[in-house]
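Figure 3 (text version): structure tokens given as input.
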């Protein structure tokens, strides 16, 4: 599997991910994790395969999902990513804050709407 260890992926333009599985945990969830981890350095693009089904989560509709009925076997899944050339913005854990004062993070949502 790919990992966001390097800040760039030189010379790669496209990257595909496919499985012989139709489990969401092995497909859409993986794709969503990749999208989150790689941020703006990667984006999901259409595979060009139109005749089957699309990914079954909001962010994976460009993926192709071929159900067992369509494929005649266990089914499969294809995702195609385009590498944008932008550096991976690593989502590091926030730097440790000196433990003097605890400031509340952000604004709390208002309780009630009129
Ligand atoms: Zn089908």
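Below: residues designed for each position.
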């Amino acid at each position: 599997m790919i990992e966001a260890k390097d800040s760039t992926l030189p010379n790669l333009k496209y990257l595909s991910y496919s499985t012989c599985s139709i489990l969401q945990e092995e497909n859409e969830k993986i794709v969503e994790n990749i999208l989150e981890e790689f941020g703006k350095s990667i984006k999901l693009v259409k595979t060009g395969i139109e005749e089957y089904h699309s990914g079954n989560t909001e962010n994976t509709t460009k993926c192709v999902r071929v159900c067992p009925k369509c494929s005649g076997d266990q089914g499969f899944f294809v995702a195609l990513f385009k590498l944008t050339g932008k550096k991976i913005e690593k989502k590091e854990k926030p730097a440790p804050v000196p433990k003097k004062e605890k400031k509340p993070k952000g604004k709390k949502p208002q309780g009630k709407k009129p």
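Residues 52-53, 67, 69-70 surround zinc ion (CB under 6 Å).
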